[in-house]
Amino acid sequence: MRIQTALALLVLGLPVVAQAPKTQLFVDGVYIGGELLVGVQARDIPVDEVVAELAQRAGLTLTGFDPDRRQPLVAIELRQRPLDMVLEFVLGSVGYEFERSGAELNVHGHATDRGALLQNASVAYSRATNTYPKSERAPGARLAQAWIAEDRGDLSTALDLYLLVPANYPGSTELAEAYYRSGLLAEKLGNWRDAVQSYDLLSELTTPHTFHAGQRLGRARCDIALGDPIGAIYKLKTLDLNIPALDDQDLANRILVRADAHNELRDYTAALVDLDQIDQLNSSLVQTAGYQRATSIALEGLGLYAPAGHSWLAYAKLTEGNERQTAFEMSVELFLQANDEVSALFAVRFAEDLGSSPKLELLKAQVLERLGLDRLQRQVVETPAVRLERAEAAWNDADIGGAYAELQSLIEAPGQLTDAERALASSLWARCLDQLEGIDSAMTYLRQARTELLSLENRTQLDLTAASLFEARELFDQAVDAYGGIYR
User: SS3 of 292, please?
Assistant: First the structure.
């Protein structure tokens, strides 16, 4: 996208006068209707010198510039413009701002962060395009404003700005880019029919442009969203025939759209073949939400519920808002369908860290009931030794939920346990954590628990537990360290 710099915009449609010799500065002023209009010609002059001349002409006291700092150079040609406009152009072009108070002109510190610079550029573009709407550079300035709004996440404003180009400059060379980017933004906003309109208008242009492939790909995405996956596949085939992919990344982008079309047609096997092709291309697309979503739909469609649950969970981590919440719920539901309650509990816990929902609470109740964890809500009157004995029996019977339920209160209040009982409880709890949350969680717990045991014999019991967990994952180097009391 052709984004002119704020400095280039300073001469947007401005009256041209004889250029000042290099390193020379001329400033004049005249009062018209009681307002001071100033003119300035400068080429490669430090900005503080230019502003000092303007302040002197206006009878203002200048403050704010650091006399020990070398100031950036400016080049500008204006005549008979309001003082504030000239100051905004001169200072904004190098990232400065100013305030006028009475007879004082204060210049703010230099803006260095990206957001502040973009804001300054946006203000300059807006002022210039509003002042000189018929300039040949105005369409490009509108595109620049739209890009800045899009970069800041204000998609609705960006779309309106893109659409100003065809509305106000129908013959400009920026028309194709405006149509293309307005189509992309309409897609992001879910306005699929508006996106179709922008893409179709782009396809009707007779002037040369570089958006032919992007237009057809966008149009195919719209077909899928509007329920015409067959039309999308046809468009993709004609695109490949007429405009071959530029590189593997371009090819992967096309294949992903085709996978979405196959999912919409419920041809889930074909979709997985498409997704595998993208993986074989070593494309970065495999790390994106779009790829993960397509994978989730295909796996679920083939009845592979546990893999689909993991895929929806991965998708949830890549998205946000309602889409993320729905993905978490889908993940838990699919794990329950696969009778994988342990993974379902993990998904519930992960989701709860980011916020819950009424549906997720209902799913959580199902998970806890299946695992026997609902027993945590009951009042237990047995002695800690009895609960520990029952936890050990549950673990030996592969009842992870039962063991977890019996152990949780013991781990939270271990004061009633002997040192040996505490070692046994810690060992069983670590094994439960290993199954429910992973080995890192188990080791984090064991490292703390080991420091709280009194006897070497009981600490050794935890060492053996840690080593066995590492060995189960073939992490033999870590297992050797664990035998020596080091868990890493």
Answer: helix
State the CATH class of domain 381-483.
mainly alpha
Give the pLDDT of residue 216.
96
d(Cα 129, Cα 111) in Å, to the nearest integer?
23
- The 3-state DSSP class for residue 24 equals coil
Decide if pLDDT at 244 tops 50. yes
Give the residue, 80 or 169, on which the prediction is more confident: 169
Name which of 428, 401, 429 is nearest 342 in CA terms: 401
Domain segments of the chain as ranges: 6-130, 288-371, 381-483
Would residue 421 be called left, alpha or beta, if left means φ above 0 and alpha means ψ between -120 and 50 degrees? alpha
Ranking 71-85, 122-136, 474-488 by mean pLDDT, the lowest is 122-136
Neighbours of 32 (CB within 10 A): 8
| CA–CA distance, 324 with 337 (Å, rounded to integer) | 20
Q: Rg of the Cα trace of the chain?
A: 33
| DSSP per position, 103-137 | TEEEEPPPP-SHHHHHHHHHHHHHHHHHH-TTSTT
Interatomic CA distance for residues 248 and 272, integer angstroms = 18
DSSP for 25-93? EEEEEEEETTEEEEEEEEEEEEHHHHHHHHHHHHT-EEE---TTSPPPEEEEEEEEEEHHHHHHHHHHT
Residue with tokens 């879910």: 190
- Domains 288-371 and 381-483 alike in fold: yes
Instruction: Write out the two tokens for 301.
Output: 């469609």
Q: Per mean pLDDT, which range of 67-76, 233-242, 449-458 is the poorest?
A: 67-76
For the four alpha carbons of 18, 19, 24 and 30, in that order, the dihedral sign comes to positive
Q: What tokens were used for 302? A: 């083939």
Please give the structure tokens belonging to residue 353. 């860290």
CB atoms closer than 10 angstroms to residue 362: 11
Is residue 143 within 8 Å of 177, Cβ to Cβ?
A: yes
Q: Within a 10 A sphere around the Cβ of 160, how many other Cβ atoms?
A: 16
CATH number of 6-130: 3.55.50.30
Residue recorded with tokens 């709860």: 352
Tell me the β-bridge partners of 35.
Answer: 32
Average pLDDT over residues 311-335: 93
Distance CA 454, CA 421 (A): 12
What CATH number is given for 288-371 in this structure?
A: 1.25.40
Backbone angles phi, psi at 172, to 5 degrees: -80, 160
